[in-house]
Amino acid sequence: MELLIQALHVQQPVVTKGKKKSPQPADDLAGFALGSFWQTLKEDEEVVMEPEMQDGLYSPTDKDLEGAEKNIEQQPKHNFSEMFDRPPFVGMIRCPVIDRVGKPSLDTKGEPIVRQSVHTKGHARPSFLEKHHLTAKSIPTEFVEPVLPMHKHKVDNNIKGFSMTLLAEWTNYQAI
To answer: Which of 7, 45, 77, 113 has a beta carbon 3.0–4.6 Å from 12's, enabling a disulfide?
Structure first.
């Protein structure tokens, strides 16, 4: 045991007898794009000063801190000037072809003509828009309503669906 403690203090590398084939390292970048790697960010030399607080704005102070906590030295703050290269987003969307009048072009069967294009702007699926009675010009709060409804509603099999009202009731019930 003493030899182990001494080896730790000297930072002696661990050596095993005989050569064993080391197992493959775990791929901790499995969810990232090919060619991704970890890199430590280097901070800029210039120290960033704390901003002056304006009248009427409050920030945490050390008035409420206990003994030893008051003596904790704040670390200087730095900016980082690293630039990140991200691969372009190449999601595809089916867009209707619009004629010169501004209406969707139709084929010989009366179906709208669509073309595949790179998804550059945020578009919702047309089926989602139709199902929830939305349009491309709907305001953002209208898009939140189908996902996080404000008022009570029923879903399949007459079960209460999740809503902000139901969440408030549950929170009040738990507080009692």
So the answer is: 7
Q: Which two tokens stand for residue 110?
A: 């009366």
User: Whose CA is closest to 142, among 158, 154, 169, 124?
Assistant: 124
What's the structural domain count of the chain? 1
Is 130 strand, coil or helix? helix
Question: At which residue do the structure tokens 């890199």 appear?
Answer: 39
Question: Structure pTM?
Answer: 0.31
Contact 150, 168 (CB under 8 A): no
User: Of the candidates 172, 152, 146, which has an alpha carbon nearest to the alpha carbon of residue 164?
Assistant: 152
For the ranges 105-109, 118-122, 162-166, 171-175, the lowest mean pLDDT is seen at 118-122
Task: Tell me whether residue 154 is in a domain.
Answer: yes
